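Throughout this chapter, every protein is written as a compact record of paired, labelled lines. The reader may check this reading against the record printed directly beneath this paragraph:
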Amino acid sequence: MSNKYTSLQIGIHWLVFLLVIVTYCAMELRGFAPRSYRPWINMVHVSCGMTILVLMVTRLLVRLKYPAPPIVPKPKPMVTGMAHLGHLVIYLLFIVLPIIGLVMMYNRGNPWVAFGLVMPHASDANFEVVDMLKTWHITLAKLGYFVIGLHAAAALMHHYVWKDNTLLRMMPRKRS
């Protein structure tokens, strides 16, 4: 067994990381852009969210096929349990969050765009559902900041405090 994740797993991990940054920035910084840019910014947000969904499901399926490489030295069982819980939360968050967003966009009842293409929408808007989903989407997105921060802090703890190979397992391979 290798001491690193597969190149596919590493690539998906860092691509999702970049897409999450773009997705969050699109919403957080849209107020600084002229109003005429809003449709483009929304398209970037939705397109990145859809891509994150596909990549996270793919990553989960790949993860089921290729087990995690061992952590050396082996951490305490409580640390391992917390890591499993953290990864479960990350997978759930970045699968559920885009699904909620897509269902919300569909139920608005008007055309919306992803990847430059007009997406299907409900013939009649259901604003009660849209408002409820928007609340959940925003709440979970804010939770995402906390989860991402904990994930990064844990990786750094593993590397600098516990001095194991956790962080190194997910770093891209060096070219030979």
